[in-house]
Amino acid sequence: MESGNVAWILVSAALVLFMTPGLAFFYGGMDRSRNVLNMLMMNFYCVLVVPIVWVVIGYSLAQVPFDNGFIGGFDAVMLKGIGLDDNGGSLATIAYLGMFAAITPALISGAVADRMKFSAWAIFVPVWSLIVYVPVFKWVFGGWLGQRGSLDFAGGTAIHVNAGIAALAAVLVLGKRRGWPQEGHPPHSMPLVMIGTGILWFGWFGFNAGSALAANGQAVQAFMNTFLAAAAGGLAWVLVEWKRDGHPTNLGAASGIVAGLVAITPAAGYVSGASPIWIGLLAGVICSYTVRAKVRFGFDDSLDVVGVHFAGGLVGSLLIGFFANPAFFGGEFREGLFYGGSLRLLGEQALANGVAIVWSFGLTYAIMVVLKRTMGVRVDPEVEANGLDLELHGETAYHGGGLH
Prior knowledge:
Blueprint: H1 3-30, H2 36-63, H3 89-108, H4 118-140, H5 144-148, H6 156-174, H7 190-209, H8 217-245, H9 250-264, H10 275-290, H11 293-297, H12 305-323, H13 344-374, H14 381-386, H15 388-393
């Protein structure tokens, strides 16, 4: 691997790592003040444990041997056999992919906010990473789903749909927060939310453009697509809520930006021209209505992980079937419907996401049930009332205890 490509992968890896504290601020600001430190810790814990799991065995199972369609093996356990003979390109790629592995379970934390035991979270994260994330990652990137013809440039299916549907399974086992939905749970700090949004947008350029694994034209295209889709997503959400509710809000702008980023993730290296704008606009509109489904259907997804990450990832992945432009990636039989293709690509996108949904939902539900029956997954009512920061971590974010 050329040194310039290695340098870009290293920079992109750092950008993706920065996204996890960005996500922590984004979620932390949306959460209640008495639980903000718990939310930060749930996110940072993913950066503490998942990279170790990834290096010890996760990467080997997810990628080595690459031509195995269903699961890897033990050839690269503890990075065995990984050297610097390719100018460090292999090691840089492993580090980069490890950042993806770390942020994926962190996405789920927003759904279980305010009520999940941290001890249960500490077990859930590494177990989920190994038995849910790793197989889906393998199937999508180089495994049987990818070999069939589905496309996922930077993780729309493997990361966002995967984590989003897992969030739904987790909250169904965990149950609703006390007083929900009768009691409102507004963000306690919109400045934190907006700071987190800015960090996420900044880091997402490494998330998407870095997935080209080279400093080339496809990386540039993914960079531009990421910029446009995020802007379009934020604009669409703001316009929808302005007309629907009478107010353009900061939370709507932030949520729309993230929805646009999520939706363009699977398509970033495969679409061109105005396509990312359409993808972002559709994601902003669809997700702005999807987040309301939790009240209608009675599942307490605290910080809208299902409505933004699952719905946004699914929208973006399916839209590849319409907008994929093979001139930008040489994809034989992978033309979108708007570029002369048939329904084949759309069908493969639907199959890949369907498999990920069934696998992730089923196993996540099982993990949560086992944890519930063994150690318990939910804090006691008095802990929930007093705040998780003080009760679980012995500290508070704000002077006076932060009991709001």
